[in-house]
């Protein structure tokens, strides 16, 4: 525990104690900027507000390219070309990626109305590197920056100092001059106490340079470093003959808890693919390492498809131009039959959910066709449900059998679900109890839930109250009209609403009968402050 501002401590310890409030407890708010993977490690009770910086919208991307590329027809062709690769087009939300894309792609020729092959990210940065190395004096600096990029990326650093440059044998004066000429690539700035600091123009540049350096370093590490006379081609062929080093890069990336090496791996595999293609065209035997790597990555995906790293691994497969796992996932969505029995249906369901969301973004609304309503069809369509923001399942002939899989959808890390309408299905207490297990989990982000007319009684209400206590900060609207909670069920619900952090704003309930058995004080539920649910009375 760190409470004294004069006490020296590590950065992780300082951050942890700042967030918890042990250090500078009088500070009303602390603003932390980070990647989503790192933010997810902060317990929810310490977060008051989350702001997501999304960069360019799709319309702003198009506007950027139209302004950056003078030829209107060429700008239109570039936009069409990029849209053909969703992964790269999504990255264009970063203005820097847009700038690189415009610089490289405006010089290329496109055939109008011809379907293009999906664009990988690595070739774009390869072209950028070629432009950088056109001047001989830049070649040595690019190599040295690669060494700096990799060493600091492994440490999780994006800002460097003069001592870091010297550690990589970089002449500080030369680096300062390079930074003035190549601002998009490398920059110099003045930090605290007038100390000079350096950083890459964007983190993607650092990750690309780090991938290049990783390839060069392992390619030169032959057994016992015995033969220093080997050419670069011979060392690179040795590297691609063995998948061990590539696997180690995958494992290193997956061990990263912040996701700061995700693009590094994608670049590394893309570069490997480019080299493999060049060697094949030059008459060398194709490497066996890349096919082995493909199977290794697929195995990692299917072992834990709901992991935050899975989407990056799928992007790595796209970089290697392998779409077989995506095809299998979408086939499972259509048939409900696992393409490979080695992995359970739940894993294929999570993969299909991720694919639906990544290909088309989160679906606004989902509901089953009238002729296909029921528990069995719901289970088959679970991946689409996870990818949807609103799921409307009113009068869908569902029973408690559907509730367990819906609970899993609520807690899935790949779920986009914000609103769920289950009204007028025979869920009963058993089903609502199963559903409540999902509502109680911190991963659940559901904001609106309709359980009107689901034959819920006191046990179901008790389960919902318990869920509200466990995860009080997300549900905003709850419709429980048309059920029979009894006095005990109402008491349970009121107790659940007393949680300090309860964010429920609208509660549609039931009309309580006046008389000796009426619940005392039930009307006071609407008087709670500051989280005050609006209680709408309904005839049952």
UniProtKB/TrEMBL annotation:
Keywords: ATP-binding, Cytoplasm, Leucine-rich repeat, Nucleotide-binding, Repeat. SUPFAM superfamilies: RNI-like. InterPro entries: Leu-rich_rpt, LRR_dom_sf, NACHT_NTPase, NLR, NLRP_HD2, NOD1/2_WH. GO terms for molecular function: ATP binding. It is found in: Cytoplasm. SMART domains: LRR_RI (SM00368). Residues 6-71 form the NACHT domain. Its main location: cytoplasm. GO terms for cellular component: cytoplasm. Residues 140-200 form the NOD1/2 winged helix domain. Residues 517-540 are annotated as: Disordered. Residues 202-325 form the NACHT LRR and PYD domain. This is NLRC3 protein. It comes from Coregonus suidteri.
